[in-house]
Amino acid sequence: MDVLNLELARARQSVKRAETSLNHAKEMLDEDCGVGINLALCSRIRSEQKRVAEARKRLMKIAGLPCSEG
């Protein structure tokens, strides 16, 4: 396996992990755990959204595809 394929696989895995973590946080938010917990989850969701965007951007860069900002 060449280096490019390895990096692409790592980037895809990073995107998948970030998306899974984001989805888990969103599911937890739906569980009505109280205001304090919900505020913490909202912060976590924002952080995970940023992580997903960064992982996708890295994947597109490695793949040589144009990526949209925002």
Give a short summary of the structure:
The longest helix has 29 residues, at 35-63.
What does this structure look like?
The chain is mainly α. 80% of the residues lie in helices and 0% in strands. The chain has helices at residues 3-29, 35-63. The longest helix has 29 residues, at 35-63.
> How many β strands by DSSP?
0
Classify the beta-strand content into a percent band.
Answer: under 5%
Which term fits the overall shape? Answer: elongated
Low-confidence stretches: none
The major beta sheet can be summarized as: none
What structural class do the secondary elements suggest? mainly alpha
List the keywords:
70 residues; mainly alpha
Indicate the topology.
Blueprint: H1 3-29, H2 35-63
Helix pairs in contact: 1-2
